[in-house]
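Hi L.,

You mentioned the student needs an example of a multi-chain input paired with its predicted structure. This one should do, with 574 residues in total across all chains.
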Amino acid sequence: MKRPEDLRSHRWFGGDEVRDFSHRARARQLGLNAEEHLGKPVIAILNTWSGINPCHMHLRERAEQVSRGVWQAGGFPVEFPVATLSETYQKPTPMLYRNLLAMETEEVLRSYPVDGAVLMGGCDKSTPALVMGAASADVPAVFVPAGPMLRGHWRDQVLGSGTDMWKYWDDRRAGLIGDAEMSEIEAGLARSPGTCMTMGTASTMTSAVEAMGLSLPGSAAIPAVDSAHHRMAAASGRRVVDMVWEDLKPSHILTADAFADAITTVLALGGSTNSVIHLIAMAGRVGVKVGLDDFDRIARRVPVLADVRPGGEHLMEDFYYAGGVPGLLSRLVELDLLACDRVVATGRTLREELAGARVHNDAVIRPVSSPLAAEGGLAVLRGNLAPGGAVIKHIAAEAHLLTHTGPAVVFDGYADLKKRINDPSLGVTKESVLVLRGVGPLGGPGMPEYGMLPIPDRLLAEGVRDMVRVSDSRMSGTSYGACVLHVAPESFVGGPLALVRTGDLIRLDVPARELVLEVGEEELQRRRAEWVAPEPRYERGYGALYAAHITQADEGCDFDFLARPGVNPEPDPR
Ligand code: FES
Ligand code: MG
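Structure written out for the whole complex:
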């Protein structure tokens, strides 16, 4: 147990030097009497609220409930506004800025008199960013997930954000509905604050973080506007104060077992492929070795149990009522797939936390005897086209495409794709393999979610719904199809994807985990010698820093100088 004089913040407030005096005087300026804060753990509430982030629009108010909990437990809450990563509005993609928020998180926690932290986020990349930063700073921390929005509604239809956006847009293009219907749908698709309510990247990552043990049990699925969300926020604030006294830090919670369980959870959820990159990056911060092959190995024994869109039928609100993450984990315990003796944020073991966990609706969280799919939804491919690996969410693909050889149709970047995909002279057939390159971590930049390349209109009209697609980009958690993603190394740095020419045969063999360019090594050598590296994307600023230090997808796309544990000197507040 720590004593008040052991607190980090004591070095700012507790001594008898002129700086301590100044820090105390400025706390009076903040409107606080000495007895209100001296000797109490300072809890930083890192808030990613912004007026332009609809997924986080309730977090400004929710921070008040966190503060309430911190005060109740004898802490001193201090809110820090940090960068917001809005999946909807930030371009070219918030993935470009994940590491910026991670750096900001780490440095705020390091440079201020902070003893513990509450991390408030949820919209896709904000979750890994906050966890990466807090893990590197290694101060006691609880993650408060923003929570999913309520189910969407239009007339008698239930709407899922993301998935139904595409569906109704296509209906309008086809003339099935008009502008009046469209504006009703516009108002019903995302009808409350909160993150996407399908099993996209947001709920995949907040569920993974809960499974790791950095959120209070049961947090991730609570709808953003439910009163339970207010109560969870206050409870998180109360708990982190005790974590400070107990000195329970991320480095104690984020063990190799915790990451293995997070991967297991993601796979049982049929979660987003983006989680592969994020979990590798998060593990790197604490020195846990997680690689692509861990996902493939674990995927072979984990059934998909969550029947939630886009892989299944239901939405996050249903998943919450069905028992949420604890319900899902209770089923994984039946299969003996979790390391239950590890400690979580409550200070208790996962086993203790799951003792009362139940599933209340077998249609939403399937029993282990009738899973949605017997094997996890993810496979890792290798071969001469992806020496560093690539991933495919094979449960989301048409089965006949999982072993397929076809001629490549190559696009260089998204603009080229948009310009030519419906060009009658493209010579594309349903056997073709659509290749998009120049959209990786450096090429994109930031690996935008272009990986679900559109099926050409002519083939769509013929009834083709899926094709093999290969790219060095990512795919939205709400997308589907035989899309090979995250090809590493990317074409921008001269990976073999850069050498593909239209007409080359590409072989995909998911059972054998292979992705092969059927071109002889001699010919590839010749093409490699001719290859000209593209011009850098950025001349200056953050983009130039990003370009100089970003790692490839198989390494988590962290910055090389951040992707390891290590201790920086503590600032001397005096
Ligand atoms: Fe924020 Fe989907 S846009 S979670
Ligand atoms: Mg998304």
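You could point out the following to them. Residues 87, 124, 200-201, 476-477 surround magnesium ion (ligand 2) (CB under 6 Å). The mean pLDDT is 96.

Best wishes,
N.
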